[in-house]
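It is worth pausing here to work through a concrete case rather than discussing structure prediction in the abstract. The textbook approach is simple: state the sequence, then state the predicted structure, then interpret. We follow exactly that order.
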Amino acid sequence: MTTLSSGFARARRWLRGHPLAFDAALAFGTLAAMICGSFTAPGDGHGPPAFGARTPELFSVLLMTLSAAALVLRRRRPMQVLAVTGALSVVEYVLMEPPAPVVMGTVIALYTVASRTDRPTTWRVGLLTTVAVTATAMVFGSTPWYSQENFAVFAWTGLAGAAGDAVRSRRAFVDAIRERAERAERTREEEARRRVAEERLRIARDLHDVVAHHIALVNVQAGVAAHVMDKRPDQAKEALAHVRDASRSALNELRVTVGLLRQQGDPEAPTEPAPGLAVLGELVDTFRNAGLPVEVACADRDRLPAAVDLAAYRVIQEALTNVRKHAGAAVRAEVSVVRVGATVEVTVLDNGRGSAGRRPGTGSVGGDGTGGIAPRARAAPGGDAHAGAGAGVYGEEPESGGHGLVGMRERVTALGGALTAGPRYGGGFRVHAILPVEARTGEPERPGTAGGTGIRR
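Step two, the predicted structure:
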């Protein structure tokens, strides 16, 4: 039984791959059926049909052969084949008595048309064919018009059209299901690629924030140590201790970030939580140890959703890093985090003049490639570089690009917030980020997150 079923399956696959051979075999089988039917005469009354009671005429054999031969092209020319077979059937009913079953070719051709066209075409062509063939049989036949042979012609042609339409509908339904499945598969793949790209971008932003912040602090403290090594070794030791702390903190944060890339089965990743406003004091202390005075006003620092908390922390970290690197000497910075309704506003201000009269351009970074904040003014001849919005040329791009401001803006806009950065009137610089707490963070708000007043630290 298994061998027989596998043989049928192979034959079916071969015939599907060779449709012309299948149609030729179908035409041959139809011709054999028509010839056998032409030897059969209807029984009298309620008796069975009698085989061999009559012999078909040579002209009928010719018409049956032409009708069967036309079926070989039924897939390529369905309408033309239906017209030819229908005309041969009409000729057979008009000229021959008793007629041979040439109409079998018309039935198969009508089924082909119905299965390969649309429903309106099937209705029009099927109705025309059925009426034409049935009316001819009723008018020119020797039997009464109400005989069962004439109604059999009507039934078979109508059944052929209905069967072809059903096959076409099922084929269209299967194709639609297959298309939806393929589209869903493509959509899943595109969604997976999009999520991978977003995750890579997020990790890249984290790595940039960690490296830019800590390496800048290490660079500053190492410069201090080198400067005071000979005259003030105690201060040099203190600076080197800060270098060690900053490098250890950078390694820990890098270990946490890179741990996200571990595969299943790798050693357990670090479980240290992502930094947030709860450790803002430690972040500010690193800048104070590097010689940057920072004042902080923060409200509800430990009551924000995790995504907003991390974004606020990274914005402050990147902004202070750029203040330390680009604002020049004797600069002071102010940081405020205030809850305003359904948003939290993060502001970083400084009063610096900038290095060499310029700061990194908007959307780019400083010349050392460590990440910029926003445009700085270039000093006009005889004037202050930060004397106001009209006392310089703002928005000038540096020679080399980076990802500081870009990373901050991507991080903020990913949460549905907004970030602005630019020079302050009268000198200095301002970075302002607005982060929604409830709308797009995707986390339920915790109790007790009503807006509060800033607590000066």
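Step three, interpretation. Residues 28 and 454 are 94 Å apart (CA to CA). Residues 355-402, 441-457 have pLDDT under 50 and may be disordered.
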